[in-house]
Amino acid sequence: MSEEFELDTADLAKRMDGALSNLRTEFASLRTGRASGSMLEPIMVDAYGSMTPINQVGTVNVPEPRMVTINVWDKGLVNKVEKAIRESGLGINPQLNGTIIMLPIPELNEERRRELTKVAGQYAEHARVAVRNVRRDGMEQIKKHKDGMSDDDHKFWEGEVQDLTDKHIKGIDDLLAHKQEEIMQV
Questions:
Q1: Which CATH number fits domain 37-104: 3.30.700.20, 3.40.50.300, 3.30.1360.40, 3.40.50.1970?
Q2: What digits encode the pLDDT tens for the residues 124-157?
Q3: What architecture (CATH level 2) is domain 9-30+109-185?
Q4: Domain boundaries, the chain
Q5: Model-level pTM?
Q6: Which HAMAP family match (predicted)?
Q7: What is the DSSP string of the chain?
Q8: What is the pLDDT of residue 169?
């Protein structure tokens, strides 16, 4: 291998891992018919003049399999939290009980399950695109240094980048298959 060129595969792997991590977070926010505190993570509340995550304005609990509760710390924010949940597109109707907001999780019908699997597929495709963009960056770095390296070194580095890409794409596909199975489970 050439002494002049050393591709930072650790950096590429870290960036691809970031795409996988982001996908896991997006999948956690998809409703599967079971209550989960993570489904509220993407929802932001207008609190004290800035957009704040729900878990920073109250305590999120899952007291039973089909119920999420939020104990809002500031009574003045209860209506804002309720409004943010209603407008989030989760399809959950919040119920107020003082400073506690109860979110009963309705059973998913077949049509909604199919829609959610399509959304999961879109999330996975975004992650694949992110991984491919990192691959493209790696390949461009290799091309820039092509003059200073042998054909064997060039093929070696391209192979390394492709192996990393294939491994991460397979990870995305595995996560998607698992999530779709979880969504379709009645």
A1: 3.30.1360.40
A2: 999 999 999 999 999 999 888 888 788 888 899 9
A3: Orthogonal Bundle (1.10)
A4: 9-30+109-185, 37-104
A5: 0.68
A6: RRF
A7: --SS----HHHHHHHHHHHHHHHHHHHHHS--SS--GGGGTT-EEEETTEEEEGGGTEEEEEEETTEEEEEESSGGGHHHHHHHHHTTTS----EEETTEEEEE-PPPPHHHHHHHHHHHHHHHHHHHHHHHHHHHHHHHHHHHTGGGS-HHHHHHHHHHHHHHHHHHHHHHHHHHHHHHHHHH--
A8: 96
Q: Which band of pLDDT confidence, cut at 50, 70 and 90, is reported for residue 32? A: low
pLDDT(78) > 60: yes
Residues 6+ apart with CB under 8 A from 42: 29, 88
Q: Looking at residues 79-105, what average pLDDT do you find? A: 86
Query: CA dist 95 to 31, 58, 88, 160, 176, Å?
Result: 18, 15, 15, 53, 32
